Structure formats: structure tokens, C-alpha cells
């Protein structure tokens, strides 16, 4: 899913990003995000990507997002777009699948799965 400036403005509850995740959205890409929406997306374990050139992505484009290298590869247009890297602690929360699992892992309560690196999507 892509958006422009201040994506998620007016959304102060976790239900909005939770619905996106439930509907199968694997990442939200926008030029910028409303701060509360930004944290809610990270807290539920949905990948959030700030990309200055998000408006160059078209509906139906096939993308690969590499958070480690800081790039979106647009396989449809054969182009690359730079992304703003996530803060390391936010990447750790994503690696765990959300804030609840992150805290559980920090407490040693793994629920069968330890946190791992987020795969490319």
C-alpha cells in the first residue's frame, strides 16, 4: 500500500493499521506518516517504509523491500527507490512481530518463537 505525505493522519487507534494487516497488506509505503499512526503500525508488527519518491510507485507494481540496504526494488519498472532506515529498536520490534511479542521475548517468554531478522518482502 502506498501513500503520500502525512499518511494515517487522524488515525490515533491501532485498529486502522490492524485492519490493513488483517487484509493482507505486507507493508505501507509513503513519503511521510502521522506520528501516532507510525508507532501504531510498528507496534502491531506491520512494515512501514518512508520513501521520498513513493508517488513513483504505481498500482500493480511488484516490489521488493530491503530494509537492511535501504532500498525498494521496483521489479515492474526496473528501478530502485531509496528509503529512510528505521531506528534499530523499531526494527527489533518488527523482527518480533510487534510490541507485545518484543516485550515477551525481552522477558524470556518466547511463545515458541524467538525474534528474528525480518525477511525481504
What key attributes describe this structure?
4 helices, three-stranded parallel beta sheet, 121 residues, alpha/beta, three-stranded antiparallel beta sheet
What does this structure look like?
The chain is an alpha/beta fold and about 120 residues long. The chain is about 30% helix and about 20% strand. The protein has helices at about 15-20, 35-45, 90-95, 100-105; strands spanning about 1-5, 25-30, 45-50, 65, 70-75, 80. The chain is globular. The mean pLDDT is about 85.
Gist?
With 121 residues, the chain is α/β, with parallel strands linked by helices.
What is the spatial order of strands in the main beta sheet? Answer: 1-2-3
Helix content: 25-40%
Q: SS-based structural class?
A: alpha/beta
What is the CA–CA distance across the termini? 13 Å
- Quote the beta fraction: 15-25%
Query: What is the strand tally?
Result: 6
Oligomer: single chain
**Tally of individual helices:** 4
Please tell me what the overall shape is: globular
Alpha-carbon Rg, integer? 14 Å
Q: What is the mean predicted local confidence, pLDDT?
A: 85
Task: Explain the layout of strands and helices.
Layout: E1 2-3, H1 15-22, E2 27-30, H2 35-43, E3 47-50, E4 63-66, E5 71-74, E6 79-82, H3 88-96, H4 99-106
Parallel strand pairs: 1-2, 2-3
Antiparallel strand pairs: 4-5, 5-6
